């Protein structure tokens, strides 16, 4: 009979058989799929798994720290942490076009990963968090995006590995159940979707450090307040964006000219269409008050009322 406990045991055996005494390399972004595949590989082959976490400087607040804490400090995985923040922000300087930004982030991600792979000896396998919908929905935008940013598929000829994809028969809810079975923390397993290019597509237009900081801090406040209000379990995706223009305001009796934060909270089944969440006025006021008091360079907060279509979920 099929249950998650048996699935984990069967896959552990299959992975051991496939890998033998050789090594597996895994790009561990900290997303649900890569985290679960990391935990499963760790259970099967322990220190023969080499995880690489690339921090592109566009992660949410404390996200990379949490990947290191869980996988390195708690689970004692063989984890290489690469802080590539300066490199990514350098390449992105003055680049305003959304597609160009995505291309730079995706391309640079592969190059950083490839450089790390070259430093390592005797790697034969590449672990991947491919799940069933990635295979069947490969024609949709979302799946393609996921592919271009997470399926390190663009590696050069001399870096071709055999793939280990133990989750490829599972749907998302089964992947989460597998993560829980493997003992991963619920905050990691029930994480809301987060785009590969991260906060890079939420810091609209050409990325600047002050606005990137405003996106990161306001996003952290939004998530904290949604959690307190129990909305984190109810709403499919919620985040903030910061546009690249300023508006006039008043702070300490003086005119100021600063950025705005836009809040977005949506529900969807398949991300192809989406409706907005009717967030309680009190919750919105609380979030607005905190952002205006705690986030630098911001004097205005707006709530995005647009469904998809015609708007997409993200802004870029
Ligand atoms: P849109 O903005 O197209 O987003 O309505 C649909 C869903 O896809 C997510 N998204 C991405 N996920 N890499 C990802 O892994 C990406 O590049 C990417 N772009 C958008 C988005 O957050 C939403 O859930």
Automatic annotation (TrEMBL):
The name this protein goes by in its record: GMP synthase (glutamine-hydrolyzing)
CC terms in the record's Gene Ontology section: cytosol
Residues annotated to bind ATP: 29-35
Segment forming the signal sequence: none
Functional description taken from the UniProt entry: Catalyzes the synthesis of GMP from XMP.
Domain spans labelled GMPS ATP-PPase: 2-191
Enzyme class (EC, first level): ligase
The EC number(s) this enzyme carries: 6.3.5.2
Top-rank taxon, per record: Bacteria
KW Nucleotide-binding (keyword) present: yes
GO molecular function, one term: ATP binding
Keyword Ligase attributed: yes
Keyword annotations from UniProtKB, A to Z: ATP-binding, Glutamine amidotransferase, GMP biosynthesis, Ligase, Nucleotide-binding, Purine biosynthesis
Pathway: Purine metabolism; GMP biosynthesis; GMP from XMP (L-Gln route): step 1/1
């Amino acid at each position: 009979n099929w249950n998650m406990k048996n699935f984990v045991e069967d896959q552990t055996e299959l992975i051991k058989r496939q890998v033998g005494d050789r090594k597996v390399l895994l790009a561990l972004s900290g997303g649900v799929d890569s985290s679960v595949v990391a935990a499963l590989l760790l259970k099967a082959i322990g220190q023969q798994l080499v995880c690489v976490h690339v921090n592109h400087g566009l992660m949410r607040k404390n996200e990379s720290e949490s990947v290191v804490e869980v996988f390195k400090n708690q689970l004692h995985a063989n984890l290489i942490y690469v802080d590539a923040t300066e490199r990514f922000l350098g390449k992105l300087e003055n680049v305003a076009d959304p597609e160009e930004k995505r291309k730079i982030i995706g391309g640079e991600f592969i190059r950083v990963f490839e450089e790390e792979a070259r430093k390592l000896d005797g790697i034969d396998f590449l672990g991947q968090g491919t799940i069933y919908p990635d295979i069947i929905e490969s024609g949709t935008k979302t799946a393609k995006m996921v592919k271009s940013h997470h399926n390190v598929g663009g590696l050069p000829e001399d870096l071709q590995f055999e793939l280990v994809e133990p989750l490829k028969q599972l749907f998302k809810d089964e992947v989460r159940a597998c993560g829980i079975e493997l003992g991963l923390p619920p905050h990691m397993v029930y994480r809301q979707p987060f785009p590969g290019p991260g906060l890079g597509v939420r810091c609209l237009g050409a990325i600047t450090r002050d606005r990137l900081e405003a996106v990161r801090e306001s996003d952290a406040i939004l998530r904290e307040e949604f959690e307190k209000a129990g909305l984190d379990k109810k709403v499919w995706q919620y985040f903030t964006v910061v546009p690249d223009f300023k508006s006039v305001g008043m702070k300490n009796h003086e005119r100021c000219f600063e950025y705005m934060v836009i809040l977005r909270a949506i529900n969807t089944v398949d991300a192809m269409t989406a409706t907005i969440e009717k967030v309680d006025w009190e919750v919105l006021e609380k979030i607005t008050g905190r952002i205006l008091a705690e986030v630098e360079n911001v004097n205005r907060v707006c709530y995005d009322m647009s469904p998809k279509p015609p708007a997409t979920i993200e802004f870029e």
